[in-house]
Write a sequence for this structure.
């Protein structure tokens, strides 16, 4: 596993650290206004998705590997709802913030 503080891209690092800390404010701060996301190919409302999949269910990301300069991750993701699953994450950043992320089973 790659410790979050050793992830290559500082924006992605901030995203992972916010998720793992359960820090809703830090999570929102790392997103651009109007940021978008998809889960398993379907666009979702970030606030609703994050509340369900991260904050109300203790979401946690253990990063297995990164590629594309740190903008693509393979993660063992777990939460209280779904348990643990291997997931792929892809990030688009803009000015030090995430403008879009896509996740789904890997």
């Amino acid at each position: 596993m790659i410790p979050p503080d050793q992830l290559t891209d500082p924006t992605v690092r901030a995203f992972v650290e916010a998720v793992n800390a359960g820090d809703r404010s830090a999570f929102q701060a790392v997103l651009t206004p109007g940021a978008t996301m998809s889960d398993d190919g379907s666009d979702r409302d970030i606030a609703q998705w994050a509340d369900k999949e991260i904050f109300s269910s203790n979401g946690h990301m253990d990063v297995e590997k990164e590629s594309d300069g740190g903008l693509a991750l393979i993660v063992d993701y777990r939460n209280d709802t779904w348990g643990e699953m291997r997931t792929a994450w892809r990030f688009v950043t803009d000015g030090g913030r995430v403008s879009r992320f896509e996740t789904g089973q890997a």
In short: The mean pLDDT is 97.
